[in-house]
TrEMBL record:
Domain of life: Bacteria
Name of protein: 8-oxoguanine deaminase
Gene3D superfamilies: Metal-dependent hydrolases, Urease, subunit C, domain 1
Pfam families (UniProt xref): Amidohydro_1
GO molecular function, one term: 8-oxoguanine deaminase activity
Top enzyme class: hydrolase
PANTHER family: AMIDOHYDROLASE-RELATED DOMAIN-CONTAINING PROTEIN, AMINOHYDROLASE SSNA-RELATED
Amino acid sequence: MSDADARARRVWIRDPLAILAEEAGGGIVVAGSRIVERVAVGAQPAAPVDETFDASRHVVIPGLINTHHHAFQTLTRAHPIAINKPLFPWLKALYTVWGRITPEAFRLATRVAYTELLLSGCTTAGDHHYLFPKGLEQSVDIQVEEARSLGIRAAITRGSMSLSDREGGLPPETLTQDDDTILADCERVLNLFHDPAPGAMVQVGLAPCSPFAVTKRLMRESAALADRHGCRLHTHLGETLDEDEFCLSMFGCRPVDYLEEVGWMSDRVWLAHGIHFNDAEVARLGKAGVGVCHCPTSNMTLASGQCRTCELEAAGSPVGLGVDGSASNDSSNLMEGVRHALMLNRLTYGAETVTHLDALRWATEGSAACLGRSDIGRIEPGREADLALFTLDELRFSGAHDPLAALVLCGATRADRVMVAGQWRVIDGQPLGVDAVRLREDHSRLAKALFGAG
């Protein structure tokens, strides 16, 4: 325990209904931003506490960690020009809308996504923002401001698109930037916002969008820049068979070969989706320690396929969870994503192979590993006090016998309390400092204006 933790106000979260931690049936003690003690059933904390919170109605789990999202897409949920389409046609349809997003609309889209995540028990919000048309050049700055205002921990990746449809890529030229502009802004936001220290509230990674949206030069130079700054690298890879065909046609190789060619076969990297890998590619990714963010909800919505989660983990790849964009998921609810991960992976591997504890582990420890963080993702002394507390008071939980299993199997979707870095950010199911009714009204108004602008 540090001197600062020893002097901090000590809060005992006492006697939970259930808790996802060993030897903590009597609760945990939080001091400052960290967990400092686990309390056994019937025991008392080792030192006096300043405050006690009665958690006897609550199931306590580590705060969920989202490792892939596109917050701007909350403005185009269930959009009629894109529903019922697979990825490439879906993207091409929505590119025509996304280029009209204003800074005001983007700020509210981010606020909605972060608030939804918090309400679902998520304490670390990962976002892959790759949309920088004219007027949205300060997007990362806006996302950092919104994360700090809400008090959510943020893993923001400065995404990019530089390969337009005129050069053989997928996005229109109006949504791309040139490599030099992108790299200069990556350097800027890393210098301004990236905090590599344990307990960091904001970390920045670099995230060229996908093989069909960026140049090889941008991939290579992003890797070099990440190495200099000690930050993570992120991209979409292996999401669809269309992507396989694109890489073979454009680069003469499969996506994993492409990843290796541009210098990304590293444990600094985590990938979004990672569905269409063969056995040899799974082994190569695992040996290199490349992480994979499983996005079950969007993968089912777009019918992209099923991530090989169990094989990837067995090979050595960290596996985390992500909600993905709110236009392919139509929600920013990570607890719902945990349930979808359980169901989809049971369909793939069998009921005996994947448990509710596996799905929760992917959303906590696995996601933390994808982000390269050992200070979050578990309830144990020394880790950050990022916690999600759920009640089982709704009819859907009546008759449930295992509280932790009930969260997943009975479909919990909203946390009653959420703590980030030792501070309550959701109380009685409400986000602190957010007028949710006004936020919904303002966000909806801008979304409708965006729809009508076409």
